[in-house]
Amino acid sequence: xxxxxxxxxxxxxxxxxxxxxxxxxxxxxxxxxxxxxxxxxxxxxxxxxxxxxxxxxxxxxxxxxxxxxxxxxxxxxxxxxxxxxxxxxxxxxxxxxxxxxxxxxxxxxxxxxxxxxxxxxxxxxxxxxxxxxxxxxxxxxxxxxxxxxxxxxxxxxxxxxxxxxxxxxxxxxxxxxxxxxxxxxxxxxxxxxxxxxxxxxxxxxxxxxxxxxxxxxxxxx
Length: 221
Fold this sequence. Notes:
- By secondary structure, this protein is of the alpha+beta class.
- It has helices at about 35-40, 65-75, 165-170, 185-195; strands spanning about 5-10, 15-20, 50, 60-65, 85-90, 105-115, 120, 130-140, 150-155, 200-210, 215-220.
- Strands 1, 2, 3, 4, 5, 6, 7, 8, 9, 10 and 11 form an eleven-stranded mixed β-sheet that branches.
- A hairpin with a 6-residue loop joins strand 10 (about 200-210) and strand 11 (about 215-220).
- The protein is globular, with a radius of gyration of 18 Å.
- The chain starts with 5 loop residues before the first strand and ends with a strand.
């Protein structure tokens, strides 16, 4: 099994660059996943995944090497300490040409269908619904011209729901390129024309407090 791409490591944590197409963790015995890559690299022992990424998504994954560290880092997921930033190439609907470099918040309620491995937008009153929030803006240095059909977004994830970014952006008229699950007929056709075969979403930055030194850390791709 290949050695994982390590961005930072000490005796308490390990931060990795997960390629697109590899699961963070899977129950399929014959399938390669990042978790088992790390277990093999560390020659066994305790490993806990702190933030997970969808299999088609590239980006930064944080893992803990002991239970205390895992508990401390997991608490940061539910507060305002840990900041997860993504970049996404999206297809623009006709009314989405006014995107600026100021963050705009999307607030929805999502419900997951585990059998189908999908999520959908629903009312907050539906049983099993969960609040989903993110903020997006035009990526710094990027400009949208009048006839552009695509752009690059900078996304700040505020909650961690199943397929949240992919679903919320599509619902808002900005489906991610290469996403056949939540894309529109137009975005899927455009992705095929451009030979985009994977979801154009990357978790490019992760900020958190180191659980032992208590120093703020930001890891970026």
